[in-house]
Amino acid sequence: MILAAVPRLRAFAISLTGSVDRADDLVQETLLRAWTHFDSFQTGTNLNAWLFTILRNLFRSDYRKRKREVADSDGIYSLCLSSMPEQTGKIELIEVRTALAKLPPEQREALILIGADGLSYEEAAQICGCAVGTIKSRVNRARTHLAKMLLIDGAKGFGPDAETAAVLSRDGVAS
């Protein structure tokens, strides 16, 4: 009975995928799934509907997966990709945590509520039980202290160091 449904499954798969090859793969996967899970089929129900449901679900799962993939058969796109070394980021995270621990508790609390938790100044003021101006002042002082402790001199103090930026720009990755 399963094999009798193959031509209609194939026609449905072609209409979904637009490709005979992908449709054949989809039908084959459907038959395999139906065969291995035949014990879940309820006798007396519509076998064709069960098979078509399996096929449709497999197509949707594959579609969601393919939507996240990038076609790069010649490898040109992947040659342009690079990532920063992880060890630098881990060291910087440790430095930020250490510097945060050295801040006065009120400043650390205000900075975390605003910067990390994403709360508004009004919400942070309500949580801390103080005026909005006090929260703004604490956050400003905390940012200033952190910048001094981490030797950050404006926006240029963020991102890769000069050596890493130079290597990335040589590879044509950074501008």
Largest sheet: none
Reading off the top of the CATH hierarchy, the class of the largest domain is best stated as Mainly Alpha
Large-scale geometry: elongated
CATH topology of the largest domain: Arc Repressor Mutant, subunit A
Count of structural domains: 2
**What proportion of the residues form beta strands (DSSP E)?**
under 5%
User: What is the CA-based Rg, rounded?
Assistant: 29 Å
Portion of residues in helices? Answer: 55-70%
What is the CATH H-level superfamily of the largest domain?
Winged helix-like DNA-binding domain superfamily/Winged helix DNA-binding domain
Uncertain regions spanning at least 5 consecutive residues: none
Cα end-to-end separation: 62 Å
Mean pLDDT: 83
Q: What is the SS-derived class?
A: mainly alpha
Number of helices: 9
Instruction: Just name the CATH architecture of the largest domain.
Output: Orthogonal Bundle
**Secondary-structure element order, as H and E?**
HHHHHHHHH
How many E-type strands? 0
Note down, in words, how this protein is organized.
With about 180 residues, this protein is mainly α. It has 2 domains: about 5-65, RNA polymerase sigma factor, region 2, helix turn helix motif (Rna Polymerase Sigma Factor, Chain: A); about 85-170, Winged helix-like DNA-binding domain superfamily/Winged helix DNA-binding domain (Arc Repressor Mutant, subunit A). The chain is about 70% helix and about 0% strand. The chain is built from 9 helices and no strands. It has helices spanning about 5-15, 20-35, 45-65, 75-80, 85-100, 105-115, 120-130, 130-150, 160-170. α2 packs across α3 (about 45-65) and α6 packs antiparallel against α7. The longest helix has 21 residues, at about 45-65. The chain is elongated and about 75 Å long. The termini are far apart. The model has no long low-confidence stretch (mean pLDDT about 85).
